[in-house]
Amino acid sequence: MKPDARLTTGPIGRTLLLFSLPVLGSNILQSLNASINSVWVGRYLGEAALTATSNANIILFFLLGVVFGISMANTIMIGQAVGARNIDEARRVVGTGTTFFVGLSILASVLGFVFTPHILAAMHTPDDAAPLAVIYLRIIFVALPFMYFYNFVMMTLRGAGDSRTPFYFMLLSVVLDVVLNPVLIFGVGPLPALGIAGSALATLIAQLVSLVAMIAVLYRRRHFLLLHKEQLALLWPDRAILRALVAKGLPMGLQMVVISSSAIVMMSLVNTYGSQTTAAYGVASQLWTYVQMPALAVGASVSSMVAQNVGAGLWPRVARITRMGLLFNVVMTGALVALIYLFNRHSLGIFLGEDSTAIGIAQHINRVVLWSFILFGFTIVVFGTVRATGAVMAPLVILFVSMWGIRLPFAWLLEPHIGAESIWWSFPVGSVVSVALAFAYYRFGNWKRSHILPAEPHAEAVGQAPDTSMGTPCEDADAATSPAR
After folding, report:
1. What is the pLDDT of residues 240-252, one digit of tens each?
2. Torsion of Cα atoms, 53 then 57 then 58 then 60, to 10°
3. Which residue ranges are recorded for the region named Disordered (predicted)?
4. DSSP codes joined into one string, 186-239
5. Residue 409 phi, psi (nearest 5)
6. DSSP states along 202-217
7. Burial of 96: CB neighbours in 10 Å, binned 0-12, 13-18, 19+
8. Burial level of 343, CB count in 10 A (0-12/13-18/19+)?
9. Using CB atoms within 10 A of its CB, is residue 459 exposed (0-12), middle (13-18) or buried (19+)?
């Protein structure tokens, strides 16, 4: 299977859309999978079991967040190498990344399994949920190496320009997880009822089967990034690549820490207004998860496309990819925002009874906050572009400033004067600041001079890239490969 040149030569609009849709589908599948599993555990095993899985999933989210940035760095390096038609370099990244991810996941798995009770105790897990949480989390730690490597393979494929294969195997994983949850929780035929352990075991089996199946299919296709016997020496870590994975990956991983930590603090502020307000905020947040998905999918796709075009030296296409990403965000995120505004009460009624007092509060929260997710989407798309060159510190600083320097102080300082309104309005205020700083950095920053590995001359672009999303060829052939002005 040879490299796909569509990310560097295809019509930008159509290519970005077709690349984004499987990424969006994968995000939706993951969220639906988590929701369905929570229903099985919460309704049939009780509140203590649901509390146990909730505590365990917070730890899992943190562990996956740690490697998120490193996975993105891996995606960008592979994208740039494939864009430059430097397949040997791409394979070196795969070899170093494979060794790094396997080693890291085994270390995290062993330490996590041993210290599971201590981790849960430090989180003040309720006494009635703690024994269940230990059982569940220990099985999740056994599954962690498969989860990490599964994530690594998916991000590698996206860096190489393939977002469909990861989607298909994500679908397989989710279907297996959803089907196996009730089977292993309650037992069927000779299979015993495993309770909460069955839910965790379903996740382990689903991840392992999907990973093995995906690798088998890639070998069957003879994917150009696979390592064969004569290339096993590439598994020995390359120092420059390993340094780049960590140095560029950690700032991107810290972005997840900034977001999640600010969300925890925000929740603590909401909790002071009582259970009705907290319930309202909780159900509104459920809807926001889906509203943000198109922007996250487009941003990730923009990163993959830009990385390949930077590798190929096609800087004029980089600007056009960014503009198309911004347009898609307006259309896709804007459509979801408009839909929820139109059916505000009905959408919230999925989670709350029609006579619930919290529905009115949640409707008001949505009216104040929802529109700002379009601005959030702009920020994510711009971040997707600049980080594809290796410029990862500016997005981290911008996120920290907008969330910890603006959003949280706004909520704290104005709360004595306008109450909970300060919390709701802090979202749009933070989004305005972040999008303004992101566009300023995109326009005036030095991100085009960043690099993720020591700079090498760009390989000459293969063919003449289309100049617009409609596929019209560029009139100046030299401009297609010239550095940004």
Report:
1. 888 888 888 888 8
2. 140
3. 462-485
4. H--TTSPP-THHHHHHHHHHHHHHHHHHHHHHHHHHT-TT---GGGGGGGSPPH
5. -60, -35
6. HHHHHHHHHHHHHHHH
7. buried
8. exposed
9. middle
CA 368 – CA 329 distance, rounded (Å): 20
CB 132 within 8 A of CB 139: no
| Domain boundaries, given as residue ranges, for the chain | 9-237, 255-462
Six token digits for residue 325: 């990403």
Rounded Cα distance between 475 and 468, Å, is 11
Q: What is the DSSP letter of 458?
A: P
Mean pLDDT of 288-300: 89
Give Rg (Cα) of the chain. Answer: 23
- Tell me the backbone φ, ψ of residue 111, rounded to 5 degrees: -65, -40
- Going by C-alpha positions, the residue among 436, 295, 291 that lies closest to residue 366 is 291
How far apart, in whole angstroms, are the C-alpha atoms of residue 309 and residue 12?
11
Angle between helix axes 275-311 and 372-387 (nearest 10 degrees) is 30
- Write down the residue that tokens 């603006």 correspond to: 406
pLDDT, tens digit (0-9, with 9 covering 90-100), for 178-203: 899 899 988 887 888 888 889 889 98
Distance of CA 170 to the CA centre of its chain: 14
The 3-state DSSP class for residue 445 equals coil
Which residues are paired to 473 by β-bridges? 466
Please count the CA atoms within 13 angstroms of the CA of 225 that sit on its side-chain side: 34
Contact present, 94 and 78 (Cβ < 8 Å): yes
Sequence-ordered list of residues with C-beta below 8 angstroms from that of 448, at least 6 positions apart, any chain: 315, 389, 483, 484
**How many helices (H) and strands (E) in the chain?**
16, 0
Q: How far apart are CA 46 and CA 252, in angstroms?
A: 37
Q: Identify the weakest region by mean pLDDT among 42-46, 88-92, 372-376, 425-429.
A: 42-46
pLDDT-derived band at 368 (thresholds 50, 70, 90) equals: very high
Degrees, nearest 5: CA angle 427-433-438: 120
20 closest CA partner among 250, 328, 319, 306: 328
Give the phi and the psi of residue 109 in degrees, each rounded to 5. Answer: -65, -50
Measured CA to CA, the distance from residue 236 to residue 274 in angstroms comes to 55
CA distances from 454 to 73, 104, 146, 160, 458 (A): 14, 25, 31, 20, 12
Alpha-carbon distance of 47 to 437, in angstroms, equals: 43
- Phi and psi at residue 474, to the nearest 5°: -70, 135
The answer to whether 150 and 218 have CB atoms below 8 angstroms apart is no
Q: What pLDDT is stored for residue 6 in this prediction? A: 65
- Is the pLDDT confidence value at 40 over 80? no
Residue 377: both structure tokens together: 């989407």
Q: Is 425 helix (H, G, I), strand (E, B) or coil?
A: helix
Give the CB-side neighbour count of residue 146, counting CA atoms within 13 A: 20
